[in-house]
Amino acid sequence: MRTGAFLYPWDVDGDPAAPDLLAGLGLAQVTLAAAYHSTRALSPRHPAHRIVTAEHAAVLYPPDPGRWAGRALRPYPAGEWAPGDAYGRAAEALAASGLEVHSWVVLAHNSRLGAEHPGTAVVNAHGDRYPWAPCIARPEVRALLVDLAAEAAVRPGATGTELESCGWYGLAHLHAHDKTAGIALGEREQLLMSLCFCPSCREGYGDEGADPDELAAAVRAALEPVWAGAGPADGLGALEAPALAWRARTARTFQEAAVAAVRAAAPPGFRVLLHADPDPYRCGADAGTDPAHVLGLADGVVARPPKLAGFAEHARPGTVLAANLSVVAGMGGAPEHLARDAEHAREAGATELRLYHVGLASDEDLAAVRTALRKLGRGLSGGSGPDGPQGVLRK
Predict the structure, then answer these.
(1) Are 194 and 309 within 8 A, CB to CB?
(2) Per residue in 353-389, pLDDT tens?
């Protein structure tokens, strides 16, 4: 299996030693952030900094003025954490060390957008807005995100892209000093708290045959046992099917539009993957999808290993099923078990690996990664590079 790893431009830009260090791990590619949400990140080896605070969602390259002129909604350039074309400088340095570069594009996750344009955000059944979650049913939001997908994905030198949050975002979101864990919410409760009732979604529910006011009331009533500690959420009765139909149709058409825009802007052979979940109603970075549909649309998906089986049964020749494995011990990863976890992922249907996140990893973590990838590559024949033993697991 081909192995790639996630990386931020600020992990490489300004650090001449970084590209060769990463190439020496045995990777075939780096998935480099081109459009990313706000974060505070450790950069443990950079000669000029240790902590990077990305204050808001931003593109990490200069956005095209002609594309965005006169538009109220447009991407935000990065601040001092990624000045100018930080992505381009990092990509060029990585390519010079023999690493293939793919872009990493976060779409429907942008707190600054929701703060400055409240009407773009998801609104739950209680009337609370989620400024971090742009509603993908809003026409102006879709126009922004589809154009952003095309621009951020097809950066100079990139031979592929991975689209994150290409679907619904919802309640789940790590926020500054988050205080939302007082009542545990399961997957159903998370979905109910993520159903949107902005004007576009209310109209959509109506088009599917559900009265939006009755639906919102049913959601609130279904959650009452949860708030009271009396049990899980109740069902929505006859209103549930049309509500979910609207959600699935909206996500599906958004994913179609985003991938089509990237394809139209990209050269031949450019690979398009989605960070995805096989549950079509799932919200978050790994957006809910219909597996058969998304694998007919994109070249493949990036998914957590437990989710791969939901995609594997719909895979066709050439489909990419990339297992997302954490290798940062301080964030719950297990780099010392990477070889074992890679084998388990292969058995679940994985054809490639993605390691999260080599820029955040300690030297000890990276040493374990290097050892594991060498172990996985033993016994292979052929040349080095993306199609040889570098970053490849024998089948």
Answers:
(1) no
(2) 999 999 999 999 999 999 999 999 873 323 333 333 3
Within a 10 A sphere around the Cβ of 91, how many other Cβ atoms?
Answer: 27
Cα distances (angstroms) measured from residue 287 to each of 152, 296, 307: 18, 16, 12
Whether residue 44 contacts residue 11, with contact meaning beta carbons closer than 8 Å, is answered with no
CB 190 within 8 A of CB 171: yes
β-bridge pairing 121-123 and 129-134: antiparallel
Question: What is the rounded CA–CA span in Å between residue 162 and residue 338?
Answer: 22
pLDDT of 225 higher than 60: yes
Tokens describing residue 284: 């978050």
Q: What are phi and psi of 10, to 5 degrees?
A: -70, -10
* Angle in degrees, CA 160, 106, 308, rounded to 5: 70
Contacts of 184 (CB under 8 A, 6+ apart): none
Contact criterion met (CB below 8 Å) for 148 and 141 = no
Amino acid at 171: L
Q: 257-282 pLDDT, tens per residue?
A: 999 999 999 999 999 999 999 999 99
Q: Cis before residue 102, ω within 30 degrees of 0?
A: no
CA 210, CA 50: separation in Å to the nearest integer? 52
pLDDT (tens digit per residue) in 125-151: 999 999 999 999 999 999 999 999 999
Give burial (CB, 10 Å; 0-12/13-18/19+) of 382: exposed
Q: Provide the H-helix boundaries in 60-138.
A: 65-68, 86-96, 111-116
| H or E element in which residue 276 lies | strand 271-277
Instruction: Give the sign of the dihedral formed by CA 204, CA 210, CA 215, CA 216.
Output: positive
By DSSP bridging, strand 300-303 and strand 129-134 are: unpaired
**Against a cut of 0.90, is the pTM above it?**
yes
